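To illustrate the input format used throughout this study, we show a single complete record. The first block contains the structure-token representation of the backbone; no residue identities are included at this stage. The design step must infer an amino acid for every position from geometry alone.
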């Protein structure tokens, strides 16, 4: 990697650190290419990325971002899982770690807040941003649905009474 490629890699990592909501630092000793591809596919499906980076370049890219706290975690063969949704990357990483013993979560950060392994696992148990939006919409729509049901009920009862009288007179 020449100097220009390193500068481009640092700039891209810095831009990534500026845009994401969470960074999960992982260690992947001995994972096969198929396992790495599977993990990247799962990350991509939820809008997250998984990237192996040189530790020195990643430390340089951390300057000027909220993620300075993960600098100490960047030792040995590590990779970074990032996502704009603070829960997505953590959720995929924790689920993948359950099924693959060669994949280990080192820690991470959510903005300026550093997370240890337990913190990342706790973050993974939270509902995602889309799930929270769906719940909020459900809560907003529920009263309107109930109101429509309540206002429709008297008319339905009146229609049943009139129908019963009509059947009685026809018989």
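Output of the design step:
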């Amino acid at each position: 990697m020449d100097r220009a490629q390193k500068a481009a890699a640092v700039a891209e990592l810095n831009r990534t650190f500026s845009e994401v909501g969470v960074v999960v630092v992982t260690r992947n000793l001995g994972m096969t290419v198929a396992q790495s591809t599977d993990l990247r596919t799962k990350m991509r499906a939820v809008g997250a990325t998984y990237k192996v980076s040189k530790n020195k370049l990643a430390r340089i890219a951390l300057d000027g971002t909220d993620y300075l706290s993960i600098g100490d975690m960047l030792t040995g063969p590590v990779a970074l899982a990032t996502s704009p949704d603070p829960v997505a990357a953590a959720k995929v990483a924790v689920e993948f770690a359950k099924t693959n013993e060669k994949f280990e979560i080192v820690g991470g950060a959510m903005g300026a807040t550093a997370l240890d392994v337990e913190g990342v696992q706790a973050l993974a148990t939270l509902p995602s941003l889309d799930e929270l939006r769906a719940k909020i919409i459900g809560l907003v729509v529920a009263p309107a649905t109930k109101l429509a049901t309540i206002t429709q009920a008297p008319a339905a009862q009146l229609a049943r009474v009139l129908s019963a009288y009509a059947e009685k007179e026809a018989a």
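Structural context for interpreting the output: The mean pLDDT is 85. The CA atoms of residues 142 and 148 lie 10 Å apart.
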